[in-house]
Design goal:
By secondary structure, the protein is mostly helical. Helix content is 69%, strand content 4%. The protein folds into five domains: 8-92, no CATH class; 199-322, no CATH class; 332-375, no CATH class; 383-454, Methyltransferase, Methionine Synthase (B12-binding Domains), Chain A, domain 1, CATH 1.10.1240; 472-599, Rossmann fold (3-Layer(aba) Sandwich). It has a five-stranded parallel β-sheet with strand order 2-1-3-4-5, with helices on both faces. Strand 1, helix 21 and strand 2 form a beta-alpha-beta unit. It is elongated and about 105 Å long.
């Protein structure tokens, strides 16, 4: 017995939720396995271009990998050595800061007047009262000399056995804590070496795992993910190093001791999203508070970190990263929280690269399309959906601003085809289905007409339309008002290319079909679905009688099917050419006009066509 579609949908949703929960649990409980692999993959993506450069100069791949890893290890060792020495020097300087801290605390106490000062003193007194009233801190009454109370004599004295056999368990505990990150580093280096050495083999296995019918899609997804992550990591390294250098220089100008150490820490911690900069800033602020007898150094350090971070985040990163990572800012925040909960601080560190990979996979594979829609940086709605939504709410100015902003970045033809014609198609379709009342439909059409007339067509080049000014083109609506507006936009675009074009109203189109009282070299029929083919076939049959020598083109707007295979839908009277967009039909008219000019078939020069 067949399963009901609704039940199948419910079963599919339930299976998806179970799979998602299983993946999350596997990531949480298997973090000891997945974390080294993730770091190895990121290191492989980052180091592959360097290894490939060595291979181009005929260095064997194993030797190239060894050289790259040795260089990376030397850099990390130098980093750790520098940080360690600076930390030791800072710890040795701490006793000298004690007097500055004491003086500042005393100064705060002396100047703490008013309500704040009284509140501080009340809290301190309350704390002392609690400390004195605690049973363990009570001072026992001393008995008189030469006497000892009975209760004191009868109270047993507790005996504590102190184990002085050594601190072996503590040593083992801390040794195991140190071995954990060391083992993580060793596993990561080993996995990175293997991935760099066998990267083509691993790529082939992933393609085979995806299936033979998904080779192209999987290959493109892997290529884009690797490119985005590699580019992001390289640029982030460059930006963070520059940030650390600026911090070190600024702290040196302020006079803070060990400025190099704080600059290195700032650059390293900035790899951690959101909290890295604030964590890196806290230590030098405390050191500035302790090292200087004045109050301005800690405030200057705070201002330096805040200023440089604002400049880097809002000015430098958008300029350097370009389109960033393809992930929205809200998605980055959600991903940071998710990966921190799953893997802790390490998850926060790798949250952005992992999210980038997931978003790229969601772009290429339909079963992850929901993730791509939720997390990607692309607008949640297309331009036509945004404009149509505004017009349905009768918000003319926001809709107009959306279209004009799009037109500033695109040509008039692209604006018409992407932002106006699809909205017309949606409105016409909703009207025919009874989903759009007459008043709202009139508002949508009037708004689109006004916006379409406002868009400038001056940037259209006439170079592709040489000597076709005398070719007369008449744009005819197939049936309704939406078709009429499509004819108007097509005529505007043709005139911007230099053609002698005019558009007809619906009433004028019916009169021309009966009388044929205009001169036209080319006729274009504008028609919107869902009845585009029927109306186009009917008007084309009548125009053939009145204009037997004029080629008739048809713009079938709002249809996504292959138009070459639908000629049978024109009621036995197909046009000479069919196009789905304004740009496409303009190109067909250009080719036809050039042919007319070469064969001398254009109309005699005279007055240009007037819009009827």
């Amino acid at each position: 017995m067949a399963t009901h579609p609704h039940k199948r949908h419910q079963n599919s949703n339930r299976s998806s939720i179970i799979i998602l929960a299983g993946v999350i649990l596997a990531l949480y409980f298997g973090r000891d396995v997945f974390v080294p692999i993730v770091f190895a993959v990121l290191a492989t993506v980052l180091l592959t271009p360097v290894v490939a450069t060595f291979e181009k100069i005929h260095v064997p791949r194993p030797l190239a990998i060894l050289l790259v890893l040795l260089a990376l290890g030397a850099v990390l060792a130098g980093f750790v050595w520098t940080i360690g020495n600076e930390f030791v020097d800072t710890a040795n300087d701490l006793p000298g800061y004690r007097e500055n801290v004491r003086q500042k605390v005393d100064r705060l106490r002396r100047t703490a007047n008013g309500a704040v000062g009284r509140a501080i003193r009340n809290v301190e007194e309350f704390g002392r009262d609690l400390d004195q009233s605690h049973p363990g801190n009570a001072t026992p009454d001393r008995p008189a000399a030469g006497t000892l109370s009975r209760s004191k004599r009868s109270t047993p004295v507790p005996v504590h056995v102190v184990d002085k056999s050594g601190n072996y368990p503590t040593v083992v505990h801390y040794s195991l804590l140190a071995l954990r990150p060391l083992g993580l580093i060793i596993i990561t280096l080993a996995a990175t070496s293997f991935m760099l050495l066998r990267r083509e083999n691993l790529r082939s296995r992933l393609l085979r795992l995806a299936g033979a019918d998904q080779v192209r899609v999987t290959s493109e997804a892997l290529e884009e993910a690797a490119t985005r992550v590699s580019r992001y990591l390289r640029l982030q390294l460059m930006v963070n190093v520059s940030f650390g250098v600026c911090i070190a220089g600024g702290l040196a100008l302020i006079g803070l001791p060990h400025a190099l150490l704080w600059g290195v820490i700032a650059g390293a911690f900035r790899f951690v999203p959101y909290v890295g900069v604030f964590t890196a800033a806290s230590i030098p602020i405390l050191v500035a508070f302790a090292a200087s007898p004045d109050w301005w150094p800690p405030l200057a350090v705070l201002g330096l970190f805040v200023t440089l971070d604002l400049i880097t985040t809002n000015a430098i990163e958008p300029l350097v990263y370009g389109v960033h990572t393809g992930v929205s800012e809200l998605a980055i925040l959600i991903a940071a929280v998710f990966w921190t909960v799953i893997w802790g601080p390490i998850g926060l560190l790798v949250s952005i690269p992992l999210t980038v990979c997931i978003v790229v996979l969601g772009r290429y594979f339909p079963f992850l399309s929901t993730i791509y829609i939720l997390l990607s940086e692309e607008p949640s709605l297309s331009i036509e959906a945004r404009v149509y939504q505004r017009l349905l709410r009768r918000d003319f100015e926001p809709a107009r601003e959306q279209v004009m902003e799009f037109s500033r970045k695109n040509s008039a033809a692209e604006t018409f085809d992407s932002a106006l014609m699809p909205v017309l198609s949606l409105a016409e379709s909703d009207r025919n289905r009874g989903l759009l009342d007459r008043n709202r439909f009139d508002f949508v059409l009037s708004s689109l007409r006004e916006i379409g007339l406002e868009i400038s067509c001056e940037e259209c080049s006439n170079d592709s339309w040489p000597n076709v000014g005398n070719v007369r083109v008449v744009c005819v609506p197939a049936f309704g008002r939406a078709d009429e507006l499509g004819a108007l936009l097509l005529a505007r675009l043709l005139r911007s290319f230099g053609a002698d074009a005019a558009h007809l109203s619906s009433a004028s189109a019916r009169r021309v079909q009966e009388d044929g009282d205009i001169c036209a070299d080319i006729i274009c029929v504008s028609a919107f679905s869902p009845f585009a083919f029927t109306h186009t076939g009917n008007i084309n049959r009548r125009l053939r009688i009145r204009f037997p020598n004029a080629p008739i083109f048809a713009g079938i707007w709002g249809i996504s099917k292959e138009l070459k295979t639908v000629s049978h839908r024109f009621n036995g009277s197909p046009p000479d050419a069919v196009a789905p967009t304004l740009a496409a039909i303009c190109e067909q008219i250009r080719a036809c006009a050039i042919t007319f000019r070469e064969h001398g078939q254009v109309s005699e020069p005279g007055a240009k066509l007037a819009e009827i």
